[in-house]
Amino acid sequence: MKIDSQLMEKLWNDYKITKNYNGVAKKHGVSVYMVKKSVEHFSKNDDKDDVIKYIDTKKKDACDFISKCMLIMSDNDKLEKASINQIASAMGIVIEKFTKNLSKDDGVFLDEIIRAVQKIE
Q1: For the chain, where are the alpha helices, taking DSSP H only?
Q2: How far is CA 45 from each of CA 37, 38, 52, rounded to the nearest angstrom?
Q3: Least confident interval from 6-10, 58-62, 100-104, 105-109
Q4: Which CB contacts under 8 angstroms, 24+ apart, belong to 88-96?
Q5: Is the CB of residue 39 less than 8 Å from the CB of residue 11?
Q6: How far is CA 98 from CA 3, 38, 85, 93, 120, in A?
Q7: CA 15 to CA 21: how far, in whole Å?
């Protein structure tokens, strides 16, 4: 027997309330296996939703941390003491992250970065 997404959702909702595979299966006339598969499917999505919600709560903290790191990295004394490899690595990471999702219109910005790097060389 194949079940549709509506029935799967009903199985999931009833299971969340009763925590009883057998009772849910009898109520809906499906096998215990079908109930377990529905529960597995929806619980995976619930776990993903929980992770996404948690990450969303930490975005401000992450942005604050990135800002602090950027301030430290742009400190003139630290830059003067850093090796060229350290600077190039940091610069490459920053450029990659900030230009990852650029549109074609943003290509001008990328060209400016490339010209600035070429001047340094």
Answers
A1: 5-18, 21-28, 32-57, 59-73, 76-81, 84-99, 107-120
A2: 13, 11, 10
A3: 105-109
A4: 91/117, 94/70
A5: yes
A6: 45, 40, 20, 9, 20
A7: 7
In this prediction, residue 26 carries a pLDDT of: 95
Whether the full predicted model's pTM is greater than 0.85, yes or no, is no
Distance, in Å, from the CA atom of 70 to the CA atom of 64, rounded to the nearest integer, reads 10
Closest to 73 in 3D by CA, of 52, 54, 95, 57: 95
What are 113's two structure tokens? 């970065």
73: exposed, middle or buried (Cβ count in 10 Å: 0-12, 13-18, 19+): middle
H/E run at residue 82: none
Mention every residue, 6+ apart, whose C-beta is less than 8 A from residue 84: none
Q: What pLDDT is stored for residue 103 in this prediction?
A: 61
CA 12/CA 16 separation, integer angstroms: 6
